[in-house]
Amino acid sequence: xxxxxxxxxxxxxxxxxxxxxxxxxxxxxxxxxxxxxxxxxxxxxxxxxxxxxxxxxxxxxxxxxxxxxxxxxxxxxxxxxxxxxxxxxxxxxxxxxxxxxxxxxxxxxxxxxxxxxxxxxxxxxxxxxxxxxxxxxxxxxxxxxxxxxxxxxxxxxxxxxxxxxxxxxxxxxxxxxxxxxxxxxxxxxxxxxxxxxxxxxxxxxxxxxxxxxx
Length: 214
Description:
Distance between the termini: 29 Å
Number of strands: 0
Shape: globular
Helix content: over 70%
Number of helices: 7
Oligomer: single chain
Strand content: under 5%
Largest sheet: none
């Protein structure tokens, strides 16, 4: 007999508390911290698109004299870091999950990967025939719109209101930025898009804690 083992509950109330504690512990293991899923992307958008606005301000002016290559490089690096953080957090939480949920996750990931390749391949053929400012707007508006659409799809698949609402928000601010034109789109996406992702991550984390409380 292991003396370190907890004794069995002696009454119904103790048994209920034990069940609730186990459910809370399981929820913590199977649900990664929402901040790891949202905040890295929010920081990437806020900083990356913010640098785009500072360097390529409307009217072909530059608020900050940055090298032309720097904003795009920083954005891609931050997006890659965000993707890696999300992949590690999801793997730790869902690595042992099987069945329909795992299948939905894999197929959803395939949609992101294949959809992105197809979209960017098409943009690469078109953007070379456009002025620099319009080509940049085409790339960013299409990429952000694609992100918003797939996040709404993900919210619908998993009935995740936070993810669906974020997809709606990103789609709306992307439309506003595209109408505003080159330069302004980067500012709208940086502030409203990146900031919105950070807010959603904080709200999702708060709801996680509430659900995990025994």
